[in-house]
Amino acid sequence: MKITGKTKLLGIIGYPLEHSLSPVFQNQALRALGLDYVYVPFPVKQENLKEVFQAFKAIGVRGFNVTIPHKEAVLSCLDHVSDKARLIGAVNTVWLEKDGWHGTNTDIDGFIYPLLEIKRDWSHITPLILGNGGAARAAVVGCAQLGCEKITIVGRNPEKLTKFGLSWHNTPLQSRISLHGWEEIPTLIPHSQLIVNTTPIGMYPHCQQSPLPPQAIESLSPETIVYDLIYNPRPTLLLRQAAARGLTTIDGSDMLVKQGAVALEIWVRQKAPLSLMRQSLLEALDIKTE
Ligand code: NAP
């Protein structure tokens, strides 16, 4: 990649950013498309978020991804926010147009992408979403978009769970959502055909942890899909346990690549080389976990 005075800037803001894999597959994609762009990680602390927008406009940053801890706070810095980002209450993709900064959320596209490959009557499937943080919000909207009529969420902290529930009031999703305590998992499992782990339980370096005990895995019905949003390690213990029972499993790598691909398409208005981006992510993950 040859960087010159004409090279256009894209990037990601968050803090910390040392472990972000987005620069790896985004730069690979930009090279493959032959575009004179570079995608740069910009570590931005919370107290500097507002200034970033003016600074980026001044130096000509065309667009950027947003990650922890800015996904929610960034909403108040934008001139235009898409409906789905408002519904989730989080933005992960920002771009500049003549009328100002625009923001949307491509995590939903990422989340549903591997599920769309699986043929199911989603209206009859009740997902069980483990966790009630940021990724759980994308999972809820994604499941609703697939057509799931009922969506069950379990959380460990009653206060946060109540707040999570309240945040969907007066939205079309309110009537589809039911909230439960973590201890209710064994009774909910027989009614769930899609398990989604949105907690960090099992993420590197805690690879020997699983959000579900072995008895819960045993009680899953044979057609259950087990989806873990974690992509490092790949697969997690949860997915290894589910695969050992012959269940369909999905890891978080497709979601990560697809959310990035949709963002790239917004910025450069060209089709993203998805399989190349995926390959580049998987190579980086292999190196990371060695
Ligand atoms: P987050 O906002 O911090 O939410 C994490 C959730 O997990 C919270 O509800 C938290 O509960 C719960 N949790 C944490 N430890 C737990 C435990 N031991 N037992 C029960 N619940 C626990 O984080 P996030 O942004 O949603 O990310 C969550 C995971 O999804 C991470 O592993 C991240 O890598 C992954 N992710 C993947 C992608 C992808 O593209 N594949 C995208 C986004 C996120 P409390 O609120 O009570 O703390």
Description of the structure:
Helix content is 38%, strand content 20%. Strands 2-1-3-5-6-4 form a six-stranded mixed beta sheet, with helices on both faces. α1 runs antiparallel to α11 (274-289), α4 packs across α5 and α4 crosses α10. It contains eleven helices and twelve strands. It is an alpha/beta fold and 290 residues long. The chain folds into two domains: 8-105 and 254-289, Rossmann fold; 109-251, Rossmann fold (3-Layer(aba) Sandwich), CATH 3.40.50.720. The chain binds NADP nicotinamide-adenine-dinucleotide phosphate. NADP nicotinamide-adenine-dinucleotide phosphate is lined by residues 68, 107, 110, 131-136, 155-157, 160, 182, 198-201, 203, 229-231, 252, 255-256, 259.
Which structural traits does this protein have?
binds NADP nicotinamide-adenine-dinucleotide phosphate; Rossmann fold; alpha/beta
Structural class: alpha/beta
Question: Count the helices. How many?
Answer: 11
- Number of folding domains? 2
Tell how many strands the DSSP assignment holds.
12
SSE pattern, N- to C-terminal: EHEHEEHEEHEHEHEHEHEHEHH
Mean pLDDT over the residues: 96
- For the record, the CATH architecture of the largest domain stands as 3-Layer(aba) Sandwich
Q: What characteristic shape results from the CA principal axes?
A: globular
CATH class of the largest domain, named: Alpha Beta
**Percent helix:** 25-40%
β-sheet strand percentage: 15-25%
**Biggest sheet descriptor:** 6 strands, mixed
Termini separation comes to 27 Å
Would you spell out the secondary-structure blueprint of this structure?
Layout lengths: L7 E7 L7 H11 L4 E7 L5 H11 L1 E6 L13 E2 L1 H6 L4 E5 L2 E5 L2 H10 L10 E4 L3 H13 L4 E5 L2 H9 L10 E5 L3 H4 L5 E4 L16 H5 L6 E4 L8 H8 L3 E3 L2 H16 L5 H16 L1
Helix pairs in contact: 1-11, 4-5, 4-10, 10-11
The structure holds NADP nicotinamide-adenine-dinucleotide phosphate.
